[in-house]
Amino acid sequence: IEGMLAQEKTSASMSNQAVQATLMAIQGTMLALQETMSKNHIESRADRETMKTELKKEIGEMKMEIKNLDGKRGQIQESIKINEEKIKTIEEQAKQTEKKVELMDQNIMDKNKETEEALTHLEMDRASYYLRFQNVEEDKRGEASIGDGWNYSRTPTKGEK
Predict the structure, then answer these.
(1) Which region ranges are annotated with the description Disordered (predicted)?
(2) Half-sphere exposure (CA, 13 Å, Cβ side) for 27?
(3) Burial class (CB in 10 A: 0-12, 13-18, 19+), 145
(4) Are 73 and 66 within 8 A, CB to CB?
(5) 10 Å Cβ neighbour count for 130?
(6) Cα(52)–Cα(44) distance, rounded to whole angstroms?
(7) Average pLDDT for residues 82-86, to the nearest whole number?
C-alpha cells in the first residue's frame, strides 16, 4: 500500500508538474496572443487614422470638383443665354432680310409689269405706224395721200387754194 501511495504521490506530482507545464504553456500562448492583439489594435488604429486622412483628402478633392463643376455649369448657362440671344438676333436679321427680298421681288415684278406695258405700247405704236402707211397712196408726182382724196402731206400752192 505504501508503494502504491508512493507511486501515486509520484504520479500525482508528475501530473501536477504536467498540469503546471500545460498551464505555463497556455499562459505563454495567452501572452503571445495578447501581444498580437495589442499590436493588431495599434496597427488597425494607425490604418484607421490613415484611412480617415485619405477620406478627408478625397472629400476635400470632391468638394473642389463640385465647386468647379458648379462654376462650369454657371459658365455653360451663361454661354447658352448668350447663344440664345445670338440666335434671336440672327432670326430677326433673317426676317428683315426676307422682308427686303420680298420687297425686291415686288419691285422687280412691278418693273417687269411696267416694262411689259411699255413694250405693249411700243408694239401698238409700231402697228399704228405701219397701218398708217398701208393706207397711203402715192400719186404720179411721188406725193403721198390717203385714199380719201385729200393730200395731207403737202402744203397747198397759190393756185390750189
Answers:
(1) 139-161
(2) 6
(3) middle
(4) no
(5) 9
(6) 12
(7) 97
Tell me the pTM. Answer: 0.42
Q: In terms of Cα–Cα distance, which of 127, 123, 147 is closest to 135?
A: 147
Query: Could you give the CA distance from residue 102 to residue 116 in angstroms, rounded to a whole number?
Result: 21
What is the Rg, in whole angstroms, of the alpha carbon atoms belonging to the chain?
Answer: 64
What are the tens digits of pLDDT across the range 110-142?
A: 999 999 999 999 999 988 888 876 766 555 555
Q: Which residue type is seen at 94?
A: A
Cell numbers 501515486 correspond to: 8
- Amino acid found at 82: I
User: In three state form, how does the secondary structure of the chain look?
Assistant: CHHHHHHHHHHHHHHHHHHHHHHHHHHHHHHHHHHHHHHHHHHHHHHHHHHHHHHHHHHHHHHHHHHHHHHHHHHHHHHHHHHHHHHHHHHHHHHHHHHHHHHHHHHHHHHHHHHHHHHHHHHHHHHHHHHHHHCEEECCCCCEEECCCCCCCCCCCHHHC
Length of the chain in residues, anyone? 161
- Which triple of cell numbers denotes residue 43? 496597427
